[in-house]
Write a structure and sequence with these properties.
This is Carbohydrate ABC transporter permease. This protein has about 290 residues and is mostly helical. It contains 13 helices and no strands. Helices cover about 70% and strands about 0% of the residues. α5 packs across α7 (about 150-175) and α7 runs antiparallel to α10 (about 205-220).
Length: about 290
């Protein structure tokens, strides 16, 4: 009976996995089809003729530049958009993790007024829809003359990633034993040495988990990039690919190819950090 139940569960998991992965499989298949085959009826999952034409146009330019109704050729800007997303995502992640780690450590090691309320206020800020922050953030960036700049967009992403990173790191630092640090302080180590050589290595799984979260949120955001950025060459990838659409023309080959390429950083990140991600989120959930 147990073997039949295990087989049934295994089959169910395989079916669920296929359903979840089917959109990605379809996107990969469409990106490898010739343009005349994309709209052929009935559709097929596997291309009859494999071609990398869409990827070539996307990365190196091609017929997309002269396609009727295509507007501004996306192939001229895709690599710029990709680089912009990398810059703002990495930048916001580094800032959020640095501030969250230092703040969370101080919240768990020092005593001051309002100490217990700060983490809960932070997580409440994360629970507020990000659309509410768009208008005040935009006015702030106008005053600082940072609109339509990658720095301004990076700061915008920090506002939506920092609260949860702070909460996660606070929950993780609460589980780091104080006795280890006290022993090092007694032996003559400074507070900075204790933090750098003892606390950070122990907290590494939590830092990695928070970093992955911050990077994913920044990489996938559309709203802030749409509102804060105007220059075509400075758009993030999520906003830039929308230029594949216009009123009369949609280049589905380029759209699917760009969607596949957008998943590459996430796939690499999860492939290398999966073990630390599970450990970090698990520790934060238990110790918080």
């Amino acid at each position: 009976m147990n073997r039949w139940l295990a087989a049934l569960l295994y089959a169910l998991l395989c079916a669920v996995t296929f359903v979840v992965c089917f959109p990605l499989l379809w996107a990969i298949s469409t990106s490898l089809k010739p343009k005349e085959e994309i709209f052929r009826w009935p559709p097929t999952l596997l291309p009859e003729r494999f071609t990398f034409e869409s990827y070539r146009e996307l990365l190196f330019g091609g017929s997309a530049a002269s396609a009727p109704g295509a507007g501004t050729p996306p192939s001229d800007f895709f690599l710029h958009w990709f680089a912009n997303s990398i810059i703002v995502s990495v930048g916001s992640t580094v800032i959020s993790i640095t501030v969250a780690t230092l703040a969370a450590y101080s919240l768990t090691r020092f005593r001051f007024f309002g100490q217990r309320a700060v983490p809960y206020v932070a997580i409440m800020g994360y629970m507020i829809p990000s659309v509410i922050f768009v208008f005040p953030m935009f006015l702030t960036l106008v005053e600082l003359d940072l609109t339509d700049t990658l720095l301004g967009l990076t700061l915008g992403y920090v506002c939506i990633t920092l609260p949860f990173c702070l909460w996660l790191m606070w929950a993780f630092f609460r589980g780091v034993p104080l006795e280890i640090e006290e022993a090092a302080l007694v032996d003559g180590a400074s507070r900075l040495q204790v933090f750098r050589q003892i606390v950070l290595p122990v907290a590494l799984p939590g830092i990695i988990a928070a970093s992955i979260f911050a990077f994913i949120v920044s990489w996938n955001d559309y709203l802030f990039g749409r509102v804060f950025m105007n220059s075509m060459e400075l758009l993030p990838l999520t906003v830039g690919v929308m230029h594949f659409f216009d009123g009369t023309h949609v280049d589905w080959g380029l759209m699917m190819a760009s969607s596949v390429l957008m998943t590459v950083p996430m796939a690499i990140l999860f492939g290398f950090m999966q073990r630390h991600l599970v450990a970090g989120f698990g520790a934060g959930a238990v110790k918080g």
